[in-house]
């Protein structure tokens, strides 16, 4: 699949007003979203991944994985493993937040294409559903090492097949688990109020994304983003991102 994107920084004081403007534009209320994002580093070429793992891994969608491997084309990348969590999961006792039952998906995003004149960021992408259970062991078997994790907090809107995600990054507080368990994701989540802003100013990022199955429909996706950019021109300035800032390759 191909992903086409535009981005706009949003100061904290403009957040509420922009939410109202997006709600009016899309004729929908914002869908609040909290995501755990785990970052894994590839240690070897992705083509060596074995999708026929035993135990709890039988739920892996082998077709999705193979499609993802083809997209990755044998290179090594940082990949993110994402799960949607509820606000009540933060600060919940272990018996109420079951890490081993968490649903995960692996999201691969290629480095954006170079030399495009369309004015939007474009890149290859692929997603794959992963098994429940010990996600680190599964990823390790595929040649990936856990690097770190963070939380994304934001609101989602959908407009003419374009997804708008107004969000910011939250970091976990420094504690004993951070220092003693650096090679594994957290099995319990601290209270949400204890997380800290990556950007101390509290600013947000508006991401507008349109996806198509193949490049043949690139013009349609690009025109949708152009139209959205024009409609939001008085509120925010949607632009393509710096290509190297979105580089996902392992150096």
Automatic annotation (TrEMBL):
<dbReference type="GO" id="GO:0070847">
    <property type="term" value="C:core mediator complex"/>
</dbReference>
<keyword id="KW-0805">Transcription regulation</keyword>
<keyword id="KW-0539">Nucleus</keyword>
<keyword id="KW-0010">Activator</keyword>
<dbReference type="InterPro" id="IPR019095">
    <property type="entry name" value="Mediator_Med18"/>
</dbReference>
<dbReference type="Pfam" id="PF09637">
    <property type="entry name" value="Med18"/>
</dbReference>
<dbReference type="GO" id="GO:0006357">
    <property type="term" value="P:regulation of transcription by RNA polymerase II"/>
</dbReference>
<dbReference type="GO" id="GO:0006369">
    <property type="term" value="P:termination of RNA polymerase II transcription"/>
</dbReference>
<dbReference type="GO" id="GO:0003712">
    <property type="term" value="F:transcription coregulator activity"/>
</dbReference>
<comment type="similarity">
    <text>Belongs to the Mediator complex subunit 18 family.</text>
</comment>
<comment type="subunit">
    <text>Component of the Mediator complex.</text>
</comment>
<protein>
    <recommendedName>
        <fullName>Mediator of RNA polymerase II transcription subunit 18</fullName>
    </recommendedName>
</protein>
<keyword id="KW-0804">Transcription</keyword>
<comment type="function">
    <text>Component of the Mediator complex, a coactivator involved in the regulated transcription of nearly all RNA polymerase II-dependent genes. Mediator functions as a bridge to convey information from gene-specific regulatory proteins to the basal RNA polymerase II transcription machinery. Mediator is recruited to promoters by direct interactions with regulatory proteins and serves as a scaffold for the assembly of a functional preinitiation complex with RNA polymerase II and the general transcription factors.</text>
</comment>
<dbReference type="GO" id="GO:0016592">
    <property type="term" value="C:mediator complex"/>
</dbReference>
């Amino acid at each position: 699949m191909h992903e086409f994107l535009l981005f706009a920084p949003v100061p904290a004081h403009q957040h509420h007003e922009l939410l109202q403007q997006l709600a009016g534009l899309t004729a929908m209320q914002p869908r609040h979203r909290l995501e755990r994002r785990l970052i894994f580093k590839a240690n070897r070429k992705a083509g060596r991944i074995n999708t026929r793992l035993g135990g709890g891994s039988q739920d892996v969608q082998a077709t999705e994985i193979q499609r993802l491997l083809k997209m990755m084309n044998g290179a090594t990348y940082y990949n993110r493993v994402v799960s949607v969590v509820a606000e009540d999961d933060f600060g919940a006792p272990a018996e109420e937040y079951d890490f081993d039952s968490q649903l995960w998906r692996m999201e691969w995003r290629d480095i954006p294409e170079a030399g495009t004149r369309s004015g939007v960021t474009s890149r290859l992408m692929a997603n794959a559903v992963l098994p429940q259970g010990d996600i680190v062991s599964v990823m390790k078997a595929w040649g990936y090492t856990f690097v770190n994790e963070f939380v994304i907090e934001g609101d989602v809107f959908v407009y003419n097949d374009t997804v708008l995600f107004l969000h910011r990054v939250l970091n976990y507080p420094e504690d004993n688990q951070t220092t003693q368990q650096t090679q594994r994701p957290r099995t319990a989540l601290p209270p949400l109020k204890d997380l800290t802003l990556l950007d101390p100013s509290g600013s947000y990022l508006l991401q507008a994304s349109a996806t198509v199955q193949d490049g043949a429909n690139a013009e349609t996706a690009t025109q949708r983003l152009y139209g959205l950019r024009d409609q939001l021109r008085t509120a925010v300035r949607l632009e393509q991102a710096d290509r190297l800032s979105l580089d996902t390759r392992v150096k």
